[in-house]
Specification:
This protein has 440 residues and is an alpha+beta fold. It has helices at 18-32, 44-55, 71-79, 87-95, 121-127, 140-143, 147-154, 203-232, 268-282, 289-296, 303-317, 336-345, 349-354, 367-387, 390-397, 406-415, 421-439, and strands at residues 103-109, 114-119, 158-160, 174-181, 188-196, 246-248, 256-259, 262-265, 322-323, 328-329, 334-335. The strands form 3 sheets. A 5-stranded antiparallel beta sheet has the order 2-1-5-4-3, sandwiched between helices. It has a 4-stranded mixed beta sheet with strand order 8-7-6-11. The protein has a two-stranded antiparallel ribbon with strand order 9-10. A hairpin with a 7-residue loop joins strand 6 (246-248) and strand 7. The longest helix is centred in the middle third of the chain and has 30 residues, at 203-232. The radius of gyration is 23 Å and the shape is globular.
């Protein structure tokens, strides 16, 4: 199989054939029996995980992972866990449609213990046979290669397709998972995992899981701010409060930064750099020039170029907003992107759509910007589709990114009343789209 563009995706080009599955199983057998290393049939991220599993002494045919928390102990532990307050967000974005989508949603702590397991009750009943249940520990060092355990081990979102699992009892399943961090301290809190059949290993599913993590971390950050504000409400108010700077990047080719002194139209490069610093601030982090170069320039990038641009940016916006060594925001910077994520996390789909004029810096090719653009777009699309509200679907369909989206127009057709002029227009547009797909 050719090297995937994204090594974290299990099936970037669609469902593999029987030959690929046989080669995966043969590679797995060679590794665990010490007969040789896997060939390029297996992604490097999987080979590395198999080696760690082997080194940890995981038996590919051994007993199911241990159930470490039960009954009151489980209830008490998870009630106090930092992810407990954001479970409504996870349920709204993933669990509500899990039964229709034939999948299980699991939320773990940082060690891989499953605290919540929800979704399709038939699949959950089957999965219980391999201890895929609340309280069981699925860390990679215990359960071998699996999406949630491997995502925690490498601190990165990842998909595991069927026979890529280290333990044979898990190989009938596929899964997509991503780690969740405290947005203020950067501490690893746990992971969100979706498990089911082959469809769970599609690229779209990993995007959905990452978008849910972004919404969860945004909500955690908002809750932290509210806690600080409640504490501050008991203190005497400052003599004069200045509004926080605001960065607008949605639907704009160049960002607009509103400072107390007035608005500033930024160049594309300065727009990208300031947005990347704002996104880093969500996790309470800064960035080195090397990191920003990688996130800002596709391909090779000169660190000295990024430093020069950041120096110009600091002169433009002031040294009290952007600091260096590492580059970071010194204070609060509100972004329209983060506002949309917060609204979606709270279920305010209509208001989020009103505040979403278009994609994040649509002309930017910076990899870091593309990630932010893709995540919020996927989050909004899923929320609108799940709302099943005709007025939201029609408003969303007018966005450039939805103009050729067959699934969106199909949903419009299904939700609009028979005889409606708007339904007839939607049906005509959907027919044109389908004709276009067939002619390609």
């Amino acid at each position: 199989m050719p090297t995937a563009v994204n090594p974290w995706l299990a099936l970037p080009a669609g469902r593999p054939g029987p030959d690929h599955i046989r080669r995966l199983r043969a590679a797995h057998e060679r590794l665990i029996t010490g007969c040789g290393l896997p060939d390029d049939t297996v992604r490097s991220v999987i080979v590395d995980s198999w080696r760690r599993s082997l080194g940890s002494g995981v038996d590919p045919d051994g007993v199911a992972p241990p159930v470490e928390l039960v009954d009151d102990e489980l209830l008490t532990y998870r009630a106090a866990h930092p992810l407990a307050p954001v479970m409504p967000v996870i349920r709204r974005l993933l669990v509500e449609d899990a039964e229709d989508d034939r999948m299980i949603v699991a939320v773990t702590d940082a060690s891989g213990r499953m605290l919540w397991v929800e979704g399709d009750h038939r699949l959950r009943s089957r999965a219980a046979g391999i201890h895929f249940v609340e309280g069981a520990r699925w860390g990679e060092d215990i359960a071998g290669t699996n999406a949630m355990g491997t995502a925690l081990a490498v601190d990165h979102s990842v998909q595991i397709y069927g026979s890529e699992h280290y333990r044979r009892t898990a190989q009938p399943w596929s899964c997509s998972a991503a780690p969740v961090h405290d947005p203020v301290t950067g501490t690893l809190l746990g992971s969100i995992d979706v498990t089911g059949g082959d469809h769970v290993a599609s690229p779209h599913m990993l995007t959905l899981v990452r978008a849910t993590v972004a919404a969860v971390e945004s909500e955690l950050r908002w809750q932290h701010r509210e806690q600080l504000q409640r504490r501050a409400s008991h203190r005497p108010p400052p003599l004069q409060q200045r509004p926080a700077p605001r960065l607008e990047v949605l639907g704009r080719e160049r960002a607009r930064l509103t400072l107390p002194a007035g608005p500033v139209e930024l160049s594309l490069r300065h727009s990208e750099l300031l947005l990347l610093l704002a996104e880093a601030a969500v996790a309470g982090e800064g960035r080195t020039a090397v990191q920003l170069a990688a996130e800002c320039h596709p391909g090779e990038a000169a660190e000295v170029t990024v430093r020069a641009e950041l120096s110009r940016l600091r002169r433009l916006v002031g040294g009290d907003l952007v600091a260096s060594r590492p580059y970071r925001l010194l204070g609060r910077l509100d972004t329209d992107l983060d506002r949309v994520r917060r609204l979606l996390a709270r279920g305010a789909v209509g208001e989020a759509l009103e505040r979403y004029p278009g994609a994040v810096l649509p002309g930017s090719r910076a990899p870091g910007v593309a990630v932010a653009r893709e995540r919020v777009a996927a989050l909004l699309r899923q929320a609108v589709l799940r709302s099943r509200r005709p007025e939201l679907l029609l408003r969303y369909a007018r966005l450039p990114e939805a103009h050729d989206d067959v699934l969106v127009w199909q949903a419009c057709l299904e939700c609009l009343p028979a005889g409606s002029a708007r339904r007839a227009a939607a049906a005509e547009h959907l027919m044109r789209l389908r004709r276009g797909h067939r002619s390609r």
